[in-house]
Amino acid sequence: MSNRLPARSSRARKRRFPFLQLDVFTSRRLEGNQLAVFPDARGLTDDEMQALAREMNLSETTFILRRSATVERGRGIRVRIFTVEEELPFAGHPTLGTAFVLRKRGQGEVALDLEVGRIPVSFRQQRDGLVFGEMRQRDPEMGSIHDRGAVARAAGLEADAIDPNLPIQTVSTGMAFAIVALRSLEAIRRLRFNWKQLEEYLARTDAKFLYFVTRETVDPAARLHARMIFYNGEDPATGSAAGCCAAWAVRHRRGRTR
Fold this sequence. Notes:
Number of helices: 7
Low-confidence stretches: none
Oligomer: single chain
CATH superfamily of the largest domain: Diaminopimelate Epimerase, Chain A, domain 1
Mean pLDDT: 92
């Protein structure tokens, strides 16, 4: 879907910035994880980008800032990612969705220059007509091990809802997630925590968000079932957390997560 949104400058001069809205991580329209993309955000200030992201009221909104071909060949296409609350250094579905928009506009190989650096994205057309995108995240950085009782209290969980055999550990590939393994699908479905309460806990740690997983799955072909709840609701899917979770699974010998 495409639209145009007027923005007001300090001189009250009206400007127009086209944007697109698309769904990522889905094979069906109006499902998946929504994203707004501004293909040419040159001229917008930081505050205006944040205000526009708040107006979009989606998980994330991205702003493409084109530069010379020489710079883009070496460093990638500059993109900034905003939630309704803040700018993020990295996020998965905005990276894939924005790269897809650039690909549709004639860009060949796509590399984005994000706050975390250069992130290459490749695409392939599948037989069913869908396009599959794959990004190469930064190498994972393993962070602190969290206390199970402290996480349970912060998330409003019973302590025995958390799997005692798997550590709660922060992992970052550009965005830091603490991976929390729960015992069952029932436990992960019952998540109803107070975000403000959890935010107070996270502010004292090296994690930005919690990513909940369980080895009980709805899909028998899957190895883990996951949920990522944050201040703007819940992501249907999240590429950045999935990358961190894959690194966590390998580190703790959980094997394939797919």
